Amino acid sequence: MNRLFKTSMLVAALFPAAVLAAPATGDQEITLNGAGSSDKDFDCTVFSVQGSWGQYLSDASLWGVRQTVSARDQEGESVKFDGSTRVFYDYQFGSGAARPFLGLSVGGVYGDQVDETFMAGPEVGIKYWVLDKTFITAMAEYQFLFKSGSDARDRYDDGAFFYSVGLGYNF
Predict the structure, then answer these.
(1) Is 112 or 1 the better-scoring residue by pLDDT?
(2) What is the DSSP letter of 31?
(3) pLDDT tens per residue across span 74-84
(4) CB of 133 closer than 8 Å to CB of 29
(5) For 122, how many CA atoms within 13 A lie in the half-sphere containing its CB?
(6) What separation in angstroms does the CA of 16 have from each of 67, 109, 167?
(7) Domain boundaries, the chain
(8) Is domain 2-170 classified as CATH 3.30.420.40?
(9) 104-129 tens-digit pLDDT
């Protein structure tokens, strides 16, 4: 009996997030993600910060707004800033601590190095709850730029992939 009790306590201590990780309809969520890159000589460096706010429409579906700000520092030039603002919808699968998701986003991009235009695309990621309301997230997005609805059909194949890792909190 003592051995069963110790084993049960160990399992409960190792997997608390699996029981606790359950956003509910109406819960809200905020995230803060970051990304960066440099060339091998560090002559061109890009840093990106992304934040989002969302609200659960059900236990598995989430809509929200995502904001990204990027800064590019290239040797011999002044720092250039770009941004994007988009609305997103994500559907999360499963009910444990690790919850993969698929989604879509649409919005706009603007800044020093881009033409102000619309953007859209699919996204895929995973959230892993480490505490009752706190999770780690990783996401990949495919974004393409367009100026009109007919332009979107023509430009879908000319997109780019974006990756981010961060933290989130449900409240």
Answers:
(1) 112
(2) E
(3) 888 889 999 99
(4) no
(5) 6
(6) 32, 40, 18
(7) 2-170
(8) no
(9) 999 999 998 888 999 999 999 999 99
